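We close this part of the discussion by returning to an individual protein. Part of our work consisted of pairing the sequence of a single chain with a tokenised description of its backbone. No coordinates are needed to read the tokens, only the vocabulary itself. The amino acid sequence and the backbone structure tokens for this protein are reproduced below:
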Amino acid sequence: MALGRSSLPTRVAFGRREYRLETVFKHDFFAATALYRAEKNGPDTEPNGADAQPSDAHAEPKDADAKPSGPHTEPKDADAQPSGARTEPDGPDAEPGGADTKPEGVDTVTKDAADAWPKCDADTRPEDAADARPEDATKAAVTGAAALPARIVLKVGRRASLFGVPLGWIGRWHAAHESACYQALADVAAVPAFVGRYGRHGFAHAYVEGHPLHKGEQVADDFFPRLRAALAAIHARDMAYVDLEKCENVLVSDDGRPYLIDFQIAWRWPGRYGGNLWPARWLRRRMQRADFYHVTKLQRRTRPDQLTADELAASYAKPWYVRLHGRLTRPFTLLRRRLLNRIDPEMKRGERGRVHPPEGRPNG
């Protein structure tokens, strides 16, 4: 398991709001993911987890490479903290500064999570997939500040060693990478709002009320046009989602809209690190095309009535770069499957590694 013999904290705090563990969604080789609900009253204090950091709301990260992402609006909610400059990792490996100390009380983070984050909705409904544009998927701008969400999903990456080999760097890299992805997509309606970092190995995002997409599910007519618009918005930021082969990574909210979670293997290579040079640019475009291929395949499995005869035929014609990706990742997939067979021998609906998965709830 990602945390070894440790477990997720029972309480965490972001900004001035404290959350209590409600349900563990998943705990596998790479990460542990759980749902937390905000406390109505101040909870009793308890020892911190290994990733807890000081809760100084005004402390700026001391990493020399950290750059502020710009000013944001002043929160007006009683639970929100005063505003300040928020930093964003410079690259895939960037991590927030600050020491890994253990303050008394509940687990806290250095990042001020009381930022005003846009509401997760969009009034634009593209009529069909061909008209999907990045602006169709952006969140509506809001004035003033929004309170922190009542429920959040905390994801803590791998910290445990394996056969004496330190693997904590994997969890640190994944947390920094996914946090950067969520922050880069802060205005995309189909991406849950980023809440903040949790130490060096974790982060949190807003919980989406809904369920994972299932094969054969009759989603709304505008579901896939919205999903394609979201992908177009992601691609416009020189990124690719990459992981659309799994239905579980697409959530269907209670109001029938699509949401994307789990950016663990998403493509994000900033231009200042060579992301716009020929090899990286070529790979990015192949992955972006693969994103749309997998969306068409998902649509064939759920709403084939919306596809033309040509689109239906294209969904069965796997592109060469998708086949190549499958061959290259096959050894890793087989190794991962063998490890998970030992960890989670009973295959539950969806992915392995789930712990007490509530019926109809997403896994993070």
The chain has one domain: 11-343. DSSP finds five helices and 13 strands in the chain. Residues 43-106, 108-136, 140-146, 355-363 have pLDDT under 50 and may be disordered. The longest strand covers residues 17-27.
